[in-house]
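To assess whether the prediction recovers the assembly geometry, we first specified each molecular entity separately, as shown.
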Amino acid sequence: MTTPTPADRSAVIRDSLGVGVATGLYGTSFGAVAVASGLSVAQTCALSLVMFTGASQFALVGVLAAGGTPLAAGFTALLLGSRNTLYGLRVGPMLGWTGARRVAASHLLIDESTAMAVTRPARELARIGFLATGLSIFVLWNLFTLLGAVAGEALGDPRSYGLDAAVGAAFLALAWPRLSDRRNQAVALLAAAVALGLVPITAAGVPVLAAGGVALLAGLLSHRPDPTEIPEPPR
Amino acid sequence: MSVWLAVIGAGIGCYLLKLAGLAIPARFVEHPIVERIADFIPVALLAALVAVQVFASGQSLVLDARLAGLVAAFVLLLLRAPFLVVVFGAALVAALLRLWT
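The predicted structure of the complete assembly is given in tokenized form:
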């Protein structure tokens, strides 16, 4: 392992800030969608501050918008948040933080900060990538969530702006980097079918949680070793 | 009030899941089956969320402008459009369709 040069460091910072800006900006879509789903501006901003993991946030408001109970919405968000645990297992040894630093850094552990840290050849660069990405996203994501929420509230009826259609598009875009894999495609189609089959016969919120069972089944039945997938950083 | 409870409770839960990842030594949880299931969870849940968001209206399944939005999103993703363009592009298509019909 070689010592990184200042040029290495600034290259990592530059890339990380690029990802940070791209990701932070789409906080507007979360803000607008959350308010359109019936959350208050304060609840929307609290989600971005406390939960701070995009897919789980979209899932929570999505289940609530579909008429699901807060309990089902919370569980769906937690299930989706479990992938951050796997990311942590991967990058934890590379970052090598302990104590208070680890407690603080944990909040920044998301798809993008992981992706910008795991590929680095040296610990210092991994830490720089993680922090520059995580912190820039945290600041911008919260700022743009507020912006989107306030704008969404001012707009009035979300349906006339197609914001209800934006939610499905957001979920598809979040799943997209994983859908190049054939097994993931199969799991996705089966999960969607299971969820739709359950919509008429179960309470709202249940179909999505039940689709998690497809993941369980696929994990038990598939054989090939599968390293933890870390999606590409957004463009 | 219970929406607040879900927001804060699940928010703290998600933080604890992150902390666990950084704090637990990998060897305690590394098992091929556990990892595979955990890898399939995001794709399964996101796909189910797409389906429910687009086709469900209460307890019934319907085809409306949201499907046009999803098709637009799919095309935009194939064209490698950025996230924001995909999301607001889908909204625009659905809104225009509603205006027109």
